[in-house]
Every structure is written in C-alpha cells, then in structure tokens.
Amino acid sequence: MKKVEAIIRKSKFSAVKEALHNVGVNFFSYWDVTGLGNEKEGHVYRGVSYSTSDIQRRYISIVVNDDFEAVTINAILKSAGTGEVGDGKIFVSNIEECYRIRTGEKGGDTLN
Q1: Are 63 and 6 in contact (CB under 8 A)?
Q2: Distance between CA 44 and CA 59 in Å, rounded?
Q3: Domain 2-111 in CATH 3.90.228.20
Q4: How far apart are alpha carbons 58 and 13 in whole angstroms?
Q5: Contacts of 26 (CB under 8 A, 6+ apart)
Q6: pLDDT tens track of the chain, all 112 residues?
Q7: d(Cα 72, Cα 94) in Å, to the nearest integer?
C-alpha cells in the first residue's frame, strides 16, 4: 500500500477531487494548510505591495493499493497543474498495514 500526499492550490481542489473520483479514488482526507514557498517576490494590488510568502494551500492524503499508485498520481498531476510556480508537490510513502476499525480486518482489502 502507498500513501499519496499532495499539497495543491486551493483553486484546483474541485478539479483534483473530480479527477480522483473519475479514476476510482472515492475516499481521501484533506486539510486547509498554510506554507512557505520558493516565490520571493511580493505582488502589488492597487498600488499596495503585499507578501506572497505565506501561501494558502490544500493538503490531500490518500492511501491506495500499490497497483493504484500511478493512476492516483497521474490524476493529481493532470488536474492540479497550471504550469506556474506554486502548483504544489506530491509525496509517496509506504504503508505497512491497514486495519478496518469496525471489523478488525487488516490488509489492502480494507481500502475498498
């Protein structure tokens, strides 16, 4: 099993959610987060300069079976990208075991 974590633009969340549902990822968790990025310049709006170093993003956490890792990542890449700085990151890590609390079952079948 793999844990796929993505930090994306909040404006792209609906597109990512739809793309994940279209490929069969029907359960995931998400949080609103704030982070610091590589962008160092501020922006000027109506003559007032403001900092863009604190960036509002959405953090998505998904656990999938190994054979579904590439499908999940491709869905995020295609739906979250704008080609601009600040599109986000995807992290993948191994999950050793999964348990269904209700029944006590364990293993990859608990993800269904």
Answers
A1: no
A2: 27
A3: no
A4: 7
A5: 20
A6: 999 999 999 999 999 999 999 999 989 999 999 887 666 555 666 666 655 566 789 999 999 999 999 999 999 999 999 998 888 999 999 999 999 999 999 998 888 8
A7: 15
Query: What one-letter code names the amino acid at 36?
Result: L
Read off the tokens for 60: 């998505």
Query: Residues with Cβ < 8 Å from 95, sequence gap 6 or more?
Result: 1, 2, 3, 63
SS3 state of residue 59: strand
Determine the 3-state secondary structure of 23 from DSSP. Answer: coil
- Joined tokens for residue 38: 């590589």
Distance separating alpha carbons of residues 19 and 4, to the nearest angstrom: 15
Q: Residue ranges per domain, the chain?
A: 2-111
Please check whether residue 58 is in contact with residue 20, taking contact to mean a CB–CB distance below 8 angstroms.
no
Checking 37-46 for CB contacts under 8 A at 24+ apart, the result is 37/85, 37/86, 38/85, 39/85, 39/86
